[in-house]
Write a structure and sequence with these properties.
- With about 500 residues, the protein is mainly alpha-helical.
- It folds into two domains: about 200 residues, Orthogonal Bundle (Fumarase C, Chain B, domain 1); about 290 residues, Fumarase/aspartase (Central domain) (Fumarase C, Chain A, domain 2, Up-down Bundle).
- Helix content is about 55%, strand content about 5%.
- It is built from 19 helices and nine strands.
- The strands form four sheets. It has a three-stranded antiparallel sheet with strand order 4-6-7. Strands 1-2 form a two-stranded parallel sheet.
- Strand 1, helix 1 and strand 2 form a beta-alpha-beta unit.
- The longest helix is centred in the middle third of the chain and has 31 residues.
- The relative contact order is 0.12.
- It comes from Clostridium omnivorum.
- It catalyses: L-histidine = trans-urocanate + NH4(+).
Length: about 500
């Protein structure tokens, strides 16, 4: 049985992807159970002794000075969920919802939240039985955490809202009943414990990082194919060039390029055909490498956040209940803005390589990579479409984190907009994937115009996958269908998996 054990500390990106996309089950670690029970006893003591503690015996936000009686604690927590569930827009896809639920469960399992073990187990059971709350994408400021979307996550737990179960969207109670999961009656602090955190932005961003890592590899493959198609100069990738400017991503990219084209008779040496290449070929290590370094930085931040307690208040190991700011999404907001910018640059340089492939003034290939040009347009408009995507990315890459709008009557007077940053980075990555698919198609088309071709060990694997699924474009045909097929080869990782059977691509 494929399972992931959570304890709040060791969750990896691969495990997150396994639960989100592959349906892995979730098991709560025994040690985590004990920590959860310990922190819950502290909450129960506070309520019993009528202590005034934010979010347990008080209202929320600007209502933090309103004391709540023991009799009203359950009503307070339920009202919190009902009032905060005000998201808007299309709902997150199932894989994102599962990632959100997993991350919230993992954060709660650290034992700093004061939730009951029953409520936590209910959330885990929903993951395992496939009850997926309908969560709108929009409505989070990224502080105090992802309140609105996480409230939508909780609604089915209390028999409200909507959830998808076995492919059908049901009201929350029906979904829980069909799955055989008892509803939860939220008690002191539990509503707040379930929604006060950064798990929505982190889930969206973490899955985007996973896609971005694949994009880094694909960008090296596509550029290596283009290098061969344009008979590029490999000297620019030699280690002695990069050891004197030893940025890790730059050195890694140069190594990848040499490995991918190893054995090729198309790549050239300096001075063989020309003295130097244009920047989009010669500077691949510097440009791709900078994006590698940026995305690896974001990966480090994401792994920290995935295993953090982002509640307010937090119940510390020594029993203190402290109101802090761990819910604030700024560390993720800046990271995901950076992620989007790094991905956008991969698209920018790829689109310029597409131009070099199809523009007969810049190469020795047929115009727009087609026979009988004029009668046929070939790859002419594919560059238009790619240019539109990279231009859109320039708009999307504007940082969300530089904006802040005060909320809760100025009690919460600086927010992160981190969830917007995560969603934007995800959209940028999808656009770039299409651009890279276009470059791969164009490069393979260009290679087919060469004679006596011997491709590199890595590029030959990529070329073979493309040609097994897409034929040479002899004359004009409906282009989006081919582009869709090529994009799917990238999305389902067929192409990169085949390449990595012969060349390990580093990132």
């Amino acid at each position: 049985m494929n399972t992931v054990i959570i304890d709040g500390n060791g969750l990896t990106l691969d495990q997150l992807v396994a639960v989100a996309k592959q349906g892995y089950k979730v098991v709560l670690h025994e040690g985590a159970q004990k920590r959860v029970e310990k922190s819950r006893k502290i909450v129960e003591r506070i309520v019993k002794n009528d202590e005034v503690v934010y979010g347990i015996t008080t209202g929320f936000g600007k209502f933090s000075d309103v004391v709540i009686t023991q009799n009203d604690c359950k009503t307070l927590q339920k009202n919190l969920i009902l009032s905060h569930a005000c998201g808007y827009g299309k709902s997150f896809p199932t894989e994102v919802v599962r990632a959100i639920m997993l991350l919230r469960a993992n954060a709660l399992s650290k034992g700093y939240s004061g939730i009951t073990l029953n409520a936590l187990n209910t959330l885990i059971e929903m993951i395992n039985k496939g009850v997926h709350p309908i969560i709108p994408e929009k409505g989070s400021l990224g502080a105090s955490g992802d309140l609105a979307p996480l409230a939508h996550m909780v609604l089915p737990m209390i028999g409200e809202g909507e959830a998808e179960y076995k492919g059908e969207i049901l009201n929350g109670k029906d979904a829980m009943d069909r799955a055989g999961i008892p509803l939860v009656e939220l008690t002191a602090k539990e509503g707040l414990a379930l929604i006060n955190g950064t798990q929505v932005m982190t889930a969206v961003g973490a899955l985007a990082v996973d896609e971005a890592i694949q994009l880094l590899k694909l960008a090296d493959v596509s550029s290596a194919l283009t290098m061969e198609a344009l008979r590029g100069i490999k000297d620019a990738f030699y280690p002695e060039v990069h050891s004197i400017r030893p940025h890790k991503g730059q050195m890694t990219t140069a190594e990848n390029m040499l490995n991918l084209v190893e054995g090729s008779n198309l790549v050239t040496n300096q001075g063989e055909l020309r003295v130097q290449d244009a920047y989009t070929l010669r500077c691949i290590p510097q440009v791709h490498g900078a994006s590698k370094d940026a995305i690896n930085y974001v990966l480090e931040r994401v792994l920290i956040e995935m295993n953090s307690a982002t509640d307010n208040p937090v119940i510390t190991e020594n029993g203190n209940v402290i109101s802090g700011g761990n819910f604030h999404g700024q560390p993720m907001a800046l990271s995901f803005d950076f992620l989007g910018i790094a991905a956008a640059e991969l698209g920018n340089i790829s689109e310029r390589r597409i131009e070099r492939l199809i523009n007969y003034q810049l190469n020795d290939l047929p115009a727009f990579l087609v026979k009988k040009g004029g009668l046929n347009s070939g790859f002419m408009i594919t560059q238009y479409a790619a240019a539109a995507l990279v231009s859109e990315n320039k708009v999307l890459a504007h940082p969300a984190s530089v904006d802040s709008i005060p909320s809760s009557a100025n009690q919460e007077d600086h927010v992160s907009m981190g969830t917007i940053a995560a969603r934007k980075s995800r959209d940028i990555i999808e656009n770039v994937k299409r651009v890279i698919a276009t470059e791969i198609m164009a490069a393979c088309q260009a290679i087919d115009f060469r004679e006596n071709v011997k491709l590199g060990i890595g590029t030959s694997a990529a070329y073979r996958v493309v040609r097994e699924n897409l034929s040479f474009i002899e004359e004009d045909r409906i282009m989006y269908k081919d582009l869709d097929k090529c994009t799917e080869l990238l999305s389902n990782r067929t192409l990169i998996n085949e390449v990595e059977k012969v060349v390990k691509i580093k990132y």
